[in-house]
Amino acid sequence: MKPPVDHIRISSKGKETLIKLKKRTGIAHWNQLCRLALCRSLHLATKPTLPGPLDTAIEIDWKTFAGQYDSIFSALLLIRASRDGVRVDSPEELTSYVRAHLERGISTLNSIKALGDVVVQQVRI
């Protein structure tokens, strides 16, 4: 399956949140935190709003981001994008959509104080 995007791009605001999360949770890699953020955003019922212009502070290759779960993340994103009315045949629209999910997911992680909080919050959602 072809990946929905070639690279994951995170804003400087998102990077600041991820730096805090790395310290709080002990999760050392950007891609692991971004996977968690994407899953949290996909879990929300509403379509994410597209953030403003991107000031790329972190760029992660899709293969690094998705790792061995490439086909799973690709399928989840494409299914959800179709459900939300996003044109999956438009690379620009799909890139913006993925970015919107990542930025929203990262913002939901902002209140996490420790790794255990992720599990507790996820169960409550």
Description:
60% of the residues lie in helices and 9% in strands. The radius of gyration is 14 Å and the shape is globular. The protein has a two-stranded antiparallel ribbon with strand order 1-2. It contains six helices and two strands; from the N terminus they run βααβαααα. It is mainly alpha-helical and 125 residues long. Helix 2 (30-43) crosses helix 5. The protein has one domain (7-124): Orthogonal Bundle (Arc Repressor Mutant), CATH 1.10.1220.160.
The CATH class is identified as Mainly Alpha
Question: Would you report the number of β strands?
Answer: 2
Proportion of beta-strand residues = 5-15%
Helix content: 55-70%
Give a quick account of the main beta sheet: strands, pairing sense, barrel closure: 2 strands, antiparallel
Number of domains: 1
How do the strands of the widest beta sheet line up side by side? Answer: 1-2
Radius of gyration, in angstroms, nearest whole number? 14 Å
Q: On the 0-100 scale, what is the average pLDDT?
A: 89
Uncertain segments are none
Summarize the structure.
The protein has 6 helices and 2 strands, in the order E-H-H-E-H-H-H-H. It is mainly alpha-helical.
What distinguishing features does this structure have?
single chain; 125 residues; mainly alpha; Arc Repressor Mutant; two-stranded antiparallel ribbon; 6 helices
Topology:
Elements: E1 7-11, H1 12-25, H2 30-43, E2 56-61, H3 62-66, H4 70-83, H5 91-108, H6 115-124
Antiparallel strand pairs: 1-2
Helix pairs in contact: 2-5
